[in-house]
Specification:
This protein is an all-alpha fold and about 140 residues long. The chain has one domain. Helices cover about 75% and strands about 0% of the residues. The protein has helices spanning about 1-30, 35-65, 70-75, 80-120, 135-140. Helix 1 (about 1-30) runs parallel beside helix 4 (about 80-120). The N and C termini lie far apart (about 70 Å). It holds the Pfam family FlgN.
């Protein structure tokens, strides 16, 4: 069972990494239509990963309990150890790619916030988060 759960978690992580790389490419190409579909796919994959990870954890605990006080290093064969190392590597890769994606998303958010502030009076926007109150007259006022 451990082998099956390791394969499943690694597969899901690979899909998440590929989607994140695709999202980074789409953001860099200013193709934002792709975002909502990608968010839905990632949400499903994250849910699947949580279930697979929980199953893996349970299988490892059961294996450990049957091992008569042996550590996981002694209980797992070389293939399982390699798959665990691959799982760790993929988690680190996903973490790094998500950081890169988050930086790009923050740049886009700041761009649109600045554009909004430029289009309307500086004290008339809500800065996308309600920090400042919207003045209805400022929405229709044109500065020439």
């Amino acid at each position: 069972m451990v082998k099956q759960y390791l394969d499943e978690t690694n597969s899901i992580l690979e899909q998440l990494i590929n989607l994140t790389l695709e999202d980074i490419t789409q953001i860099q190409a200013a193709n934002h239509k792709h975002v909502s579909k990608s968010v839905e796919e990632k949400t499903k994959l994250i849910s699947d990963f949580q279930i697979a990870k929980k199953n893996l954890d349970q299988a490892l605990v059961e294996l450990s309990n049957q091992g008569n006080n042996k550590g996981l290093d002694e209980l797992l064969d070389d293939k399982d150890k390699e798959k665990l190392a691959l799982l760790k590597q993929k988690l680190n890769t996903l973490h790094q790619k998500n950081k890169e994606y988050a930086k790009l998303a923050l740049i886009i958010k700041n761009f649109y916030d600045n554009l909004l502030n430029t289009m309307f009076e500086q004290n008339g926007t809500n800065n996308a988060y309600g920090d400042q109150k919207t003045i209805p007259d400022s929405l229709f006022k044109i500065n020439v």
